[in-house]
């Protein structure tokens, strides 16, 4: 082996010049001389021949992902007729059902235990608190909102599976409660349940705190960092009320070659099993709705389970390319579908898989999922609806 070559660069400093539009990266040359370059983006720096170990590491994987997404785009551009579009749709549906989300077939409703039922005449709803069984005997707390007077009347109403967002309170979060109640007051039967490690399904920590809260509110010796004798909850510590425990069990599942997304989808499918067998629900008129983490699960479920006739996906939909460019989202384990880009799929394919059924996408300008990515993804999915022609045609 020949002599080792000296490094041609080593980062010394990276800082912004006051009043300038670009960052200045200083590099040390092997002879001790300094070079400076002004570059505005990572690509700009690389094109000018400047890089750091961190930049190279990031860019290596980003370039591979971008190349995989370019191959996907090329395949979409080859869809020149309806036959090709329908074939691509079938491929996408099967990929999400079997490769990425391991969706189950519809089953007989699991055992359901009624914990409590009460009526709220002022709001016009009857509320049932239940437990139902899902994978490996897991008991899932859930709530069913029914417009008063419907139970026992012989009526069959449309129903909505309301999937809570990524909040520690689960279905009991006040904002989630507003949506469930509002839908019931408008004539829908609504079922909502606690996602894994949220609400009554908290798995780690005490007093409602989870791993993230404990890690950020304890001292180096492992005790509470406050004068209190207990670990504070997220709200007590002034932290966002989001559960981070999904990453804990999600990474454990990777050791088994599985993903947390499978568990989330299995819970939602078992909830559908319960919902469609309620005597006052029309099983042909079931929809799903969710925001943020609930939007993610709504998109997953809508792509793999044909029982979901309509979906409303809020604050989740975008494209992987736009999300990589902005770098604003810190994904949890259930949001990572192993090999999705490698196998030629992106988020818009979840929409394409469910065409031509009604699908609403809700975007906002101040979300970690970039608005432009949502628009781009919607444009990519639109041809799959257009191939079916106008509704009712």
Automatic annotation (TrEMBL):
Keyword list, A-Z: Hydrolase, Signal
Top-level division of the source organism's lineage: Eukaryota
Gene Ontology biological-process entries: proteolysis
Biased composition (Basic and acidic residues): 211-222
Domain Acetyl xylan esterase: 267-314
Annotated GO MF terms: serine-type endopeptidase activity
Gene3D superfamilies found in the cross-reference section: alpha/beta hydrolase (3.40.50.1820)
Name the record gives this protein: Acetyl xylan esterase domain-containing protein
Taxonomic source organism: Polarella glacialis
